[in-house]
Amino acid sequence: MTAPTTKIKYPDGEADQQLQRVETLHQQLKLEQARAQELLARLKGEEYQASRELPPKSQDWVRGSKHLDRKLGEYRERAKRLEKRSGGKNTMDVGIPELKAEEREIRDLEARVSGLEGRVRGFEGLPPDKEMALMEVEKMRKELEALARRRDAMFEGLIEGDK
After folding, report:
1. How far apart are CA 51 and CA 62, in angstroms?
2. Which one, out of 10, 98, 108, 161, has a CA that is 20 to 30 A from the CA of 90?
3. What is the DSSP letter of 45?
4. Is 76 in contact with 99 (CB distance < 8 Å)?
């Protein structure tokens, strides 16, 4: 007993055309893979890494923040002790409502100081001379623009590569 066999026949050249299409797609995928690996290597490069100064700066900011938190706790503790010592009486015509209002003012001032400190941190690393600082800012602005153009060109290259 023999099983019936069916032969699949393609018109002449159709299988060759399909094979050629598959090979073309395979080559395009290889090129895309190479481009993606090259881009990945560039993105892992030093120019895209965080500055070496960032971790120490972050640690300084965390230390400063913790220090301010401790100071705030100390001041609150002092206020509680003063309140207990006075026995709730108005000592020197200063009552709890006045102390609370003053505490609010202090908090507002702390928030303002914190905001100003943040603004001042933006000027770290600049020369003390105004002219030199302006030149440094201009230099950094041009560098930022160059990096933005480079980024845009890389992005356009990726988009054109997809087409």
Report:
1. 18
2. 108
3. S
4. no
